[in-house]
Amino acid sequence: MDNGLIPHRYAKALYEFALERHDQAAVYEAMKAVIDNFEAVPGLQKAMANPFMPKEEKEKLILEAAGSPAADKGGDTLTDFVKLLAKNNRLDLVMWMAFAYRDIYRQENSIYLVTITSAMPLGEADRKRLEQLVMSKLNGGTAEIKYLVDPDIIGGFIITVDNERLDASVRNELNELRQNLMK
Question: Which pTM was predicted?
Answer without folding.
Answer: 0.80
